[in-house]
Every structure is written in C-alpha cells, then in structure tokens.
Amino acid sequence: LRFKNNPNILKTLLSNQIHYDIPFSENSLMFGDRNASIRITAFLSLHCSHCARAFEKVRNILRNERNILITLVLITKDNRILSALYNLNNQGKPTDSLKLLHQWFSSDPFSRTMLTEGLCFPEDIDISDVVVEENVRLFKECNVIGTPTFFINGYRIPYQYEVDDIRYFREVFKEREEVGLSTGVVI
Questions:
Q1: What are phi and psi of 68, to 5 degrees?
Q2: Which of these, 125, 122, 118, lies nearest to 104 by C-alpha position?
Q3: Is 171 or 65 the better-scoring residue by pLDDT?
Q4: Is beta strand 149-152 parallel, antiparallel or unpaired with respect to 29-32?
Q5: Which of 14, 55, 76, 128 could disulfide-link 46, Cβ–Cβ 3.0 to 4.6 Å?
C-alpha cells in the first residue's frame, strides 16, 4: 500500500498515540541486540491462533534484521511452558527458547500437553508465578486488551501496519534518533 511508504503518515499516527515506558527486568523474555535502536514488544497469548502467526513474523524478523530487540510478554494457562521458556532464556539459551515456542505454536492442544509433560527443570527454579504477575501487570499498564499486540519503541503499532513492516519503522525511528541527538533529547 502506498501510505506505508510515506514516513510522514507513520510519524503522524505514532505522534497521536500514548507513549508507554515498557520496563524490562531479569525475567523479561528478550531476543536480539539489547542495545538496539528498534525495540519491539509483542504481547501474545500462547493459546491464540493469531498469535501463532504473529510469532512466525517475529521469528522472521529475528532471522533477517539486525540492530533489533524483541521482548515477548506472554499469557498462558500452562505454567510449565512459561517456566521452561523463561528459564531457557535466563540460562543464555534464547535459540532453545525460540525453538520451544515454535514447537508450541506448531502443535495441537494434545501435543502441547505432551510437550509440557516432557519438560524437565528443577522445581526450585519455577519462576512462573513471578512471570505471570509481571506480565499481567504489563498487559494492564500498556492497556493491552487483545492479542497479538505490538509496540515499537513504546508506541503501539498502528492497525494499518504489521510488525513485519519493520523497514518503514526503521526510517521513522532513525529520523527521530537523529532529531533527538541534535536537540539533546532522544525520543
């Protein structure tokens, strides 16, 4: 679509939104470059078919883009998968965490149960309660009422755009950084 190629439209759409300061903690499920200028936060449910498709877009972005950080904020009824994902990531195994998420989203509900029953991790490192509390708080603070929902550098991605329209966001946020650096205020 022609409007996506116009950075002025995206700038206008973003400037008319609330900016959210989305905090990260040691329990955040982060992938990519932690010093990246483009930070995407994806709010996903592990029981949502739209989120499964959105996750594939996230995987493609991580494979094909540089200087990007993606944080996943997940909700689920299954605390075992949540603990496994976050523990793998905290152990410095983000690739294994992404593979497990891909397996999860590619499976039917029965296979998901089998997948989580086969997960082995010490019960003393079950961080699911902490993660659930933190993620529910983020859903509320960022006013997320449906999934998937994406934010880029604290701004909700306008409905006219998809998360994989990253090439348009890069241009806008690059300009914002340059303006911020010249004025001393980084946006």
A1: -140, 145
A2: 118
A3: 65
A4: unpaired
A5: 76
Q: Is 156 helix (H, G, I), strand (E, B) or coil?
A: strand
Report the alpha-carbon distance of residue 63 to residue 170 in Å, rounded: 16
Residues 6+ away with beta carbon under 8 Å from 78: 46, 112, 116
Looking at residue 182, what is its pLDDT?
Answer: 33
pTM to 2 decimal places: 0.88
What does the mean pLDDT of the chain come to? Answer: 85
Residue 148, preceding peptide bond in cis (omega within 30° of 0): yes
Question: Three-class SS of residue 152?
Answer: strand
- Give how far Cα 15 sits from Cα of 51, 116, 128, Å: 26, 42, 36
Determine what percent of the chain is predicted with pLDDT higher than 90: 49
Comparing 12 with 179, the larger pLDDT belongs to: 12
